[in-house]
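Checked the freezer inventory, then went back to the computational side. Two predictions to log before the end of the day. The first one is the construct we discussed on Monday; recording sequence and tokens without edits.
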Amino acid sequence: MKRIFLTSLIVILTITAGFFYVENRQLHHTISENELAYEELRTVQEMEQIQLYYLQQPRTEVPPANYDTWLRSKEVADQLYQDSEGKFKKEWGVFLGEMAQQRDIDPFLVYELLRTETGGTFDPTLVGPETRYGHAYGMAQFMKNTAPWIAEMAGLPYEDELLFDPLYSIELSVEYLSFLYHEYEDWDHALTAYHRGMYGLEKYLSENGHAESWYAVEIQEKADKFNWVAYVN
């Protein structure tokens, strides 16, 4: 009799455990779907913010490059080429220098961001690890769900293959950083948002009470070591 009772009890407990296991998995699945839907909504809202930013920008022509800007860009390129032991090509450095001057951004911040994103390789063909949102591509590690609308708002063409073009990656990163700094007026916030997304920045702020992520701090500290004199207007 006791054996029958114990057997029945084990069966009941097994069924109950299986039921709760299935319910728990379904609950986690529902939560994950809700989180994904919310983050997709936040991505749309971020796109709208960028669109509004570019619509509000004055319609002024970018001043053409000249001898002075070229000298500054060349000096920057020489420093970056030497610092990277030749990994960051001089033509990339000159292009970065020109783009940074047009957007009034520290080129060394962008350089250190690209170094961090590629693990120090500056590999234009880099494909990041798979996430639930897909892979990140190229030297600036943009994802295919965000890069097209950043490019569109900045007036740049877009094809997936362009993410592997180092000059395109540089320009896209400068454009996006320009928007983020304009949005937050602070490099801790801007860089953390670049790394985590604007929604990810909000979560980081709520959990930590500040925007000084390792990513933002490391990039700024490394950028500070460069000669900034060449960029003083």
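The second is the one RB wanted added to the comparison set:
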Amino acid sequence: MLRPEESPNNGPITRLQRAHHPPSSLERFHLPRRLGGRSIPSAITGNYRQIRNLRRYFKEEAMSIALHSAVVAADKNLTPLRLAHVNFDPDIHNTFAHQLKSRWKVKPLHG
């Protein structure tokens, strides 16, 4: 059996847990089901989801709680949330799924 440092493409962890067949595409592993993937969560998409949820929370709570409004006013590019920017959209930088889909489409079907 291969050790993790000997195997390319993070193979042993997913193979040992029976989540990924070795010759299948790694790109398809993290793609959402609506795009033809298996929809296994990745750290990248989870990060963008957390940023979006935390921004929504702080913006809603800033209306009624003084501490939250002070945090929103003080956060000028100090955190990934960028709370002081009104028009900041964290999803505009989230091209992870589209990059995976384009890499998956250029691969041959078999082999």
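For RB: The chain has two domains: 1-40, 43-102. DSSP finds five helices and no strands in the chain. Let me know if you want it refolded.
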